[in-house]
Amino acid sequence: MVVLDEAQNLSHKLDRPVAGLLTEGRKFGFSLILATQTLSNLKQDEQDRMFQAAHKLFFQPAATEFQEYATILANSTGEKVEAWVQRLSALKKGECYSLGPSLNQAGALEAKCFKIKITAIESRIAKSTG
């Protein structure tokens, strides 16, 4: 597993390691966790590679990226872009939409999108030590 924060600052050109891991990594057993606050500085083909990820978390994006992220979510869910713009803009700190394979009631994986709230680290530590 490889974790890369601020992934937008890395080179995503086709001949660079990140692009290779995104397009070919699974067949070699690599799992990537990429975190970024913006994709606007990446070219379209570089963004497309990023969105090949099987699972994505969408936190509230920058105002300039609502439409782009809403379009991705709309294309994946069949819902309207406007509805996703509204949902994304209403996200609070620690909330995000999870898009990707999840276990259903029958225990099988299915692609779905749902809102989740991530518990603050302080609360998780307090629970584990209490």
* Low-pLDDT residue intervals, each spanning 5 or more residues: none
Number of domains: 2
Spatially, the strands of the biggest sheet line up as: 3-4-5
Number of strands: 5
Helix content: 25-40%
The N- to C-terminal Cα distance equals: 31 Å
- Total helices: the number is 5
Largest sheet: 3 strands, antiparallel
Rounded to an integer in angstroms, the radius of gyration calculated over CA atoms is 16 Å
Strand content: 15-25%
Mean pLDDT: 88
Q: Based on helices, strands and strand pairing, what is the structural class?
A: alpha+beta
**Secondary-structure element order, N to C:** EHEHEHHEEH
Rough outline:
globular
Write structural notes for this entry.
With 130 residues, the protein is an alpha+beta fold. The chain folds into 2 domains: 53 residues, no CATH class; 76 residues, no CATH class. The protein is 35% helix and 21% strand. The protein is built from 5 helices and 5 strands; from the N terminus they run βαβαβααββα. The strands form 2 sheets. A 3-stranded antiparallel β-sheet has the order 3-4-5, with helices on one face. It has a two-stranded parallel sheet with strand order 1-2. Helix 3 packs across helix 4.
